Structure formats: C-alpha cells, structure tokens
Amino acid sequence: RMLEDPAAKAYISWGGDGREFIVTNQEEFAPLILSKHFKHSNFSSFVRQLNMYDFHKTNRAPRSQRGTAQHQLWIFSHPRFVRGRPDLLQGIKRK
C-alpha cells in the first residue's frame, strides 16, 4: 500500500523492473510515511522488519561513498515482492 500511496511517491517507489523498491531521503520518509502505515516512525526498525521477512538491501555503496542519510538510496528486493503481482505476497514468510 505504501508504494501505491500518492503522498509517498517522493520517498518510496518501485525500481525500473518492478522487482525492487527504493527509499529516498530516509530522514523525511520515516516521520512522514512510516508513521502512516506502521505504529512507529523508526527507519532502523523498518529495515529490521524487512530483513526478518527476507528482504535484502541490494545497493552496496562503499563507506566512503555513502554520503548523508538525506541523499542515500535504500534499495530492497524480495523474489516474491513484484509490482503487479499481489498473488505472490502470500509466499513472503517471517524467517
């Protein structure tokens, strides 16, 4: 639902092939978007939850190139999280 929310488009979107999603500007994403969809607005907790359901961060920037939280891209994927395929969601299980 978060990815379909028009208010969230500036902060979270599908990747080009629909097999990953991208979070931009985590400092604004957390209080503005997470708090609408979850009981918290903690980005680290959001990432932990993704990891618990076997999502993987796919962009690996060297430490020297990471920059500020405001400019980082966080790209996550899961084989069963695909744009336009809600039928696959039931296969996403907690580890």
TrEMBL record:
<dbReference type="InterPro" id="IPR036388">
    <property type="entry name" value="WH-like_DNA-bd_sf"/>
</dbReference>
<comment type="similarity">
    <text>Belongs to the HSF family.</text>
</comment>
<comment type="subunit">
    <text>Homotrimer. Homotrimerization increases the affinity of HSF1 to DNA. Interacts with transcriptional coregulator SSA1 on chromatin.</text>
</comment>
<dbReference type="GO" id="GO:0005634">
    <property type="term" value="C:nucleus"/>
</dbReference>
<dbReference type="InterPro" id="IPR000232">
    <property type="entry name" value="HSF_DNA-bd"/>
</dbReference>
<keyword id="KW-0539">Nucleus</keyword>
<dbReference type="Pfam" id="PF00447">
    <property type="entry name" value="HSF_DNA-bind"/>
</dbReference>
<dbReference type="GO" id="GO:0043565">
    <property type="term" value="F:sequence-specific DNA binding"/>
</dbReference>
<keyword id="KW-0238">DNA-binding</keyword>
<feature type="domain" description="HSF-type DNA-binding">
    <location>
        <begin position="1"/>
        <end position="95"/>
    </location>
</feature>
<dbReference type="InterPro" id="IPR036390">
    <property type="entry name" value="WH_DNA-bd_sf"/>
</dbReference>
<protein>
    <recommendedName>
        <fullName>HSF-type DNA-binding domain-containing protein</fullName>
    </recommendedName>
</protein>
<keyword id="KW-0805">Transcription regulation</keyword>
<keyword id="KW-0804">Transcription</keyword>
<dbReference type="GO" id="GO:0003700">
    <property type="term" value="F:DNA-binding transcription factor activity"/>
</dbReference>
